[in-house]
Amino acid sequence: MNWKLKKFLCNILAMTAFTKTHRRQIRDRLMFYDFIKETNIPTVASPSVPVKSKTKINVAFCSDKRGIKLAAVSIKSLLNVSKGKCDYNIYCVIDEDANIKEKKSLSDLVKGTGSTITFLKPNKDFDKSYLEGWTKAIYYRTMLPALLPKVDKIIYADIDVIFCNDLIEAYNFDMGNNYIGGVKTFADGYINSGFLIMNLKQIRKDKLYKKWISVSQKEKYPNPDQDLLNYTCKGRILYLPLKYNFQTMDGANIYKCHPQWEIQDIQYHLVVLHFSNWMKPWHEKKNRPIFEELWWKYAKQTGLW
């Protein structure tokens, strides 16, 4: 079915609901019916890896104190789908308000694995940056070039994502002289910053970090951190396949931004499922998004929920 017709029919049928949340639930279930008709979650086929990768992959998660439980779910999913394939150097930029017990809950996740977790304190470089209702934690990802001066490349992920496959392929992408890699959410090339490959070496070489600090204090962007990355990195962004940041929130925009093969590919090789809209899996049952059961599968395994 033509995606424009599909969008039209989904919106018409969703109008039968009384609330915005229920309309979105109906729209998403209809729009992405092909992905959920069998198991109600994406069918993920993990490719067989005969030999475990010797390269440890650098990954970062950033959060204030309130997001530690959510970070645990993301990390747990990443470790589970990567078992026997690869290990990670996991860096967590977390508020100083987080106590030892809370940090230990994250450290316990890597016990018995070849992965490690290192906690980093946020710096003061973005204390004067524009926030307008957002928390300072939105700038933690932009601090990574300074917090990890000896790391050349890192993968950053939001804490409201679930991993359905390992990150070996993503980490091996040739970044060239691009600053970041991300998945388009608009046809003009604007990317979502919930999953990024960051070329820290190039960012430091071109002194882009200093520009981030300066621009973040001058510009009043609607989405401060995400807009900052898009506008300062324009022309130096490596566009990633849809499977690295699948957001049902994007709806028909997915069909505008990505070729059909990428859309079909997420049914079998999905890597990152991003719960990016106002409905979250941890909300009360009636306000949860589609695929929430996959999130709860890992949440229960953390022992924190």
Explained architecture:
- This protein is of the alpha/beta class and 305 residues long.
- The chain has one domain: Spore Coat Polysaccharide Biosynthesis Protein SpsA, Chain A (Alpha-Beta Complex).
- The protein is built from 13 helices and 9 strands.
- The strands form 2 sheets. A 7-stranded mixed β-sheet has the order 3-2-1-4-7-6-8, sandwiched between helices. Strands 5-9 form a two-stranded antiparallel sheet.
- Helix 5 (100-107) links the parallel strand 2 and strand 3 (116-120).
- The longest helix is centred in the N-terminal third of the chain and has 14 residues, at 68-81.
- The protein is globular and about 55 Å long.
Amount of helix:
25-40%
Architecture per CATH nomenclature, i.e. the level-2 architecture: Alpha-Beta Complex
Number of helices: 13
CATH class: Alpha Beta
Number of domains: 1
> Averaging pLDDT over every residue, what do you get?
91
- Report strand %: 15-25%
What labels would you give this structure?
305 residues; alpha/beta; Spore Coat Polysaccharide Biosynthesis Protein SpsA, Chain A; 13 helices; 9 strands; 36% helix; globular
